[in-house]
Design goal:
This protein has about 425 residues and is α/β, with parallel strands linked by helices. About 35% of the residues lie in helices and about 20% in strands. The chain has helices at about 15-30, 55-70, 80-85, 85-90, 105-115, 165-170, 175-190, 215-220, 240-250, 265-275, 280-290, 310-325, 350-375, and strands at about 5-10, 35, 45-50, 75-80, 95-100, 120, 145-155, 170-175, 195-200, 230, 255-260, 295-305, 330-335, 380-390, 395-400, 405-410, 420-425, 430-435.
Length: about 425
């Protein structure tokens, strides 16, 4: 019998990336060959994002692309867009199966049932109040460099602009022993670096019995033999307690990089967003982090065009960001999401104004990134070798501990290894060096 092929196409965050890897593993375990999304496949799984209108649109584009590759394929739509709008997704021509953001253990069986049906199957389920963390393990595949490890799901912050709590459900933390088991397995499989990820990672443990939090979990992970690097994908400002900062600063395996979403540098906008801190509190936090973790890179998210953001308030945000001197920044234009409070707020900002503000922030982000990277010239940094560099023949690339990308002459056998690189040049925001 000819081996069936499955392609898993992913949009969105690191949680989606982790979940896509687990779903691919479910099919691999049942005898399917996992292929690239641009290839012919018998099954296409579209793991969607709905944080913005752009995420919805890209999800629909991937669905149409899959049906063009193979009109007879079973097309499965999962993830946040599917959870938020199952009827809308089901109505897209070519969709055979819709599942949400949980209860996906039996996906292979559902796909094989959908192949026999003439109408799309909608298997999206609402969240229960006693929802458990969904245990789906990543099955490692090449290249084995950096591994994602999901420790938490769900969010109960309900920021005014955010659809995520509605499509990801209540807080669910993974049992610490399960996290440690997977970390050990990943290290044994050859991974040198693990990135802890979740929907609200900093809330880890709040739903568990036994008085455990993210600080405790990181302490436990620090003792995993063979683990050389540990990162957090993102952590909210309010979740960085003095104890967590102490633990991060004192953990030799923890990389000197933190991604701490800001969203706005204007206090009135922060209050309208439902963010539970002021710009002054955020600034004090960054100061404490830089004192306790010298050389740390702090990156952030910033939103422009939130309802009520006047020119004055945008300028406040712009100036605050500039003062913080972030090492990197993701810039987002506010996107109205049906069902969120901000969708009905007064003071909606015109698209052309959002675009102008976005360009200004992106330019500032690039300037800050260049300045941060330039300060590393002449230093020797440890880099995890990832893959060949497309732009420079004979060069490979990887990330320093502070998340700055570095290129250097190397060879394939070094992929997955940690090497010391002496930084000699700066090309844009990318550093170039030689193995020391």
């Amino acid at each position: 019998m000819k081996q069936k092929k499955v392609a898993v196409c992913t949009l969105g965050c690191k949680v989606n990336q982790y979940e896509s890897a687990t779903l691919a593993g479910l099919f691999r375990d049942r005898g399917y060959e996992v292929v690239d999304c641009s290839s012919y496949a018998d099954v296409y799984i579209i793991n969607t994002c709905t944080v913005t209108h752009l995420g919805d649109r890209k999800s629909r584009q991937l669905i149409r692309r899959a049906t063009r590759h193979n009109p007879e394929a079973v097309v499965v739509v999962t993830g946040c867009y599917a959870q938020a709008s199952p009827e809308e997704v089901s109505s897209i021509p070519g969709v055979d199966l819709v599942v949400g953001t949980h209860n996906r253990f039996g996906l292979v069986d559902l796909v094989e049932s959908a192949a026999k049906e003439k109408a799309p199957l909608n298997k999206v389920q609402d969240f229960g109040t006693e929802e458990d963390f969904e245990e789906l393990l990543v099955r490692p595949c090449q290249p084995r460099t950096r591994a994602l490890l999901k420790i938490q799901d769900g969010c109960e912050s309900f920021c005014a602009y955010c659809i995520v709590p509605y499509v990801r459900g209540p807080l669910r933390s993974r049992r610490p022993e399960k996290v440690l088991d997977e970390a050990r397995r990943l290290v044994n499989e050859g991974y040198k670096e693990i990135v802890l990820t979740g929907v609200h990672t900093g809330a880890y443990g709040q739903d568990l019995k036994g008085n455990i939090d993210l600080s405790d979990l990181i302490c436990k992970l620090g003792s995993v033999s063979g683990l050389l690097r540990l990162r957090l994908s993102s952590v909210e400002p309010n979740d960085i307690t003095p104890r967590l900062l102490e633990v991060l600063a004192g953990a030799p395996v923890f990389c000197r990089h933190l991604h701490i979403p800001l969203q706005s540098g204007d206090d009135e906008i922060l209050a309208r967003m439902g963010r539970r801190y002021s710009s002054r509190e955020y600034a004090r936090l960054l100061e404490a982090i830089k004192v306790n973790m010298p050389g740390v890179a702090v990156t952030t998210d910033i939103m422009v065009g939130f309802p009520g953001e006047t020119d004055r308030r945008f300028n406040n945000s712009y100036q605050f960001v500039k003062e913080m001197a972030f090492a990197g920044m993701h810039v987002f234009k506010y996107s109205s999401r049906r069902g969120t409070p901000a969708a009905s707020f007064t003071g909606q900002v015109e698209p052309v104004v959002k675009e102008r503000r976005s360009r200004l922030m992106i330019t500032l982000a690039e300037e800050m990134a260049v300045k941060f990277a330039a300060a590393m010239l002449g230093q020797v940094v440890t880099v995890l070798v990832e893959k060949p560099c497309r732009e420079e023949k004979g060069f490979y690339e990887g990330l320093a501990g502070n998340y700055v990308r570095v290129i250097f002459p190397a060879y394939e056998g070094l992929c997955g290894e940690l090497v010391a690189v002496r930084i000699e040049k700066l090309k844009g925001t990318i550093l170039e060096g030689i193995i020391d």
